Amino acid sequence: MRKDVRILLVGEPKVGKTSLIMSLVSEEFPEVVPYRVEEITIPADVTPEKVPTHIVDYSEAEQTDEQLFQEISKANVICIVYAVNNKTSIEKVTNHWIPLITENTDKDSRVPLILVGNKSDLVEHSSMETILPIMNQYSEIETCVECSAKNLKNISELFYYAQKAVLHPTGPLYCPEKKDMKPLCVKALTRIFKVSDLDNDGILNDIELNFFQRVCFNSPLEPQALEDVKNVVRKNLMDGVQHNGLTLKGFLFLHTLFIQRGRHETTWTVLRRFGYDDDLELNQDYLFPPLKIPPDCTTELNHNAYLFLQSVFDKHDKDRDCALSPDELRDLFDVFPYMPWGPDVNNTVCTNDQGWITYQGYLSQWTLTTYLDVQRCLEYLGYLGYSIIAEQESQAAGITVTRAKKIDLQKKQTQRNVFRCNVFGDMSSGKSGFLQAFLGRNFVRQKMIKEEHRSYYAISTTYVYGQEKYLLLHEVFPDFDYLTDVDMACDIVCLVYDVSNPYSFEYCAKVFKQYFMDSKTPCMMIAAKSDLPEVKQMYGCSPLEFCRRHKMPPPQSFTCNTAAEPNREIYTKLTTMAMYPHIIQEDLTSSTFWLRASVGATVFAVLGFAVYRLLLKTR
Ligand code: GDP
Ligand code: MG
């Protein structure tokens, strides 16, 4: 909303502009007035809308045309004053003042006008008959009012309307010719309806209406008021109320009614609460709240944000199969201005047998976005109405910025939940297979992935000592010329070679020696395609010898060419190494360490599954 309001009064001499301003300020009619009063500023707390308001007078006798034009272009709202007992002053409204104002204002930023008929104390009849046709002709006229500086009639109302015309303009909301809301307004209110329809049944029931009322107006509706609202809609619209709740049609009707009755500030309050600006676009401040991310830190969703995203999933998983069908996914993103997830997402996270994103996959993708592009995550949470529904200060309240990795390493412990593993390896060494196997896809299943839908990321959960952690795998493009610092920044490195290709190990050795030999990042050698006959690698030493020399764990045999889902053990190992990089040298090669890690993993994987089933049942 605007920070202040500038009201300009224009009109023929002697219609009472100066008297109106002085009557407002002194609350009595001034017998003697100057040609013009200086600009006055009314402090925010004494105005009805609580914004500082500047009132500017005009006098032909004291000001040049140039000064007038300047004031017109600076004004937020212009009151054209005429005297109800002076016909000429009324005629001048259309044949002088409106054209003059149009010429001196930007075409795009239309300034609302208010027609003010002063000296109503002098006549018996009203000027409205003459004025109404003018109002219909010019859509920039917000409203008209008859008043008297002498009787103090409608004086504060006049300035209130002027203020309201600036702060809550009807222009963007309503088309007077069509007597209907404008398409952008309908679109915004439709999104607000969908966000507020917490159970997604297409109806705002009493609980949802009360919640809506509370977040928008800070007060619940009285039960009787709630019934009254529904009755008004019922009376006017056949399908506005269903199952004792408000349908989208009813909701839109109600707002049309508010606007038509001059209560459009109600609609604006709702729109602004849901992040819209005066052009009915979502505000940048709303979508991108400030969030500081120091170097060496990463971004994760906190518990509260996961709960919210879980509720969003639940409300769209209509058949309760714990996966989002294409229709369900489209419905979920209906409150977005565009579809954020492409087909590559289905190859980045876990899906069910039909290839639909599962509950787990859905949360994984959110985790990935938060980690890789937190701004985008804030934007997405904004579209879903996170801060409103979860009653948080802003979207940023859903994000945890982790402490610097340096401190984690010093303290030898971490509170992070997401670990990044960059996967290096020569062309066709088996990197993609390694990523896809993490999502439970064997060789046969991977063959079904279309080239244009492939992803260079895979994210899912693993259990390390009973704690659920996300492991984010990133396939690094093998060309040395393209490697950048970003490719080196991760919690653990995988070096993948193809056991059946004698020339593939050399690449791993080269990457390791060039980038990781002196770094603190733990590395793991993956001997991929272990279902194929192993050949001797054309390199100075064997992979096993290489690992021993560089104090790495021995190469880990891996294949995704399995009948069932590929083995997940390796991913637990990687996550463990990422979490505890310091144990690498001493402990990692000892079998008891791995035994502990993997036993923990199975026990809790089973437990986790059971817990999840339980959750499902209670929903
Ligand atoms: P301006 O030139 O538009 O600023 O008009 P003024 O404020 O100087 O007023 C012109 C004359 O109209 C003065 O004599 C005022 O006393 C008188 N006047 C202003 N407002 C009213 C009103 O509401 N009723 C009556 N009866 N006289 C008014
Ligand atoms: Mg004057």
From TrEMBL:
One of its GO terms (molecular function) is GTPase activity. One of its GO terms (cellular component) is mitochondrial outer membrane. Its EC number is 3.6.5.-. The chain crosses the membrane at residues 593-615. Residues 304-339 form the EF-hand domain. It is an enzyme of class 3 (hydrolase). It is a single-pass type IV membrane protein. It catalyses: ATP + H2O = ADP + phosphate + H(+); GTP + H2O = GDP + phosphate + H(+); UTP + H2O = UDP + phosphate + H(+). Gene3D superfamilies: EF-hand (1.10.238.10), P-loop containing nucleotide triphosphate hydrolases (3.40.50.300). Residues 2-168, 416-580 form the Miro domain. It holds the Pfam family Ras. InterPro entries: EF-hand-dom_pair (IPR011992), EF_Hand_1_Ca_BS (IPR018247), EF_hand_assoc_1 (IPR013566), EF_hand_assoc_2 (IPR013567), EF_hand_dom (IPR002048), Miro (IPR021181), Miro-EF-hand_domain (IPR052266), MIRO_dom (IPR020860). Keywords: Calcium, GTP-binding, Hydrolase, Membrane, Metal-binding, Mitochondrion, Mitochondrion outer membrane, Nucleotide-binding, Repeat, Transmembrane, Transmembrane helix. It is found in: Mitochondrion outer membrane. Belongs to the mitochondrial Rho GTPase family. Atypical mitochondrial nucleoside-triphosphatase (NTPase) involved in mitochondrial trafficking. Probably involved in control of anterograde transport of mitochondria and their subcellular distribution. Can hydrolyze GTP, ATP and UTP. PANTHER family: EF-HAND CALCIUM-BINDING DOMAIN-CONTAINING PROTEIN 7 (PTHR46819:SF1). This is Mitochondrial Rho GTPase. It comes from Poecilia latipinna.
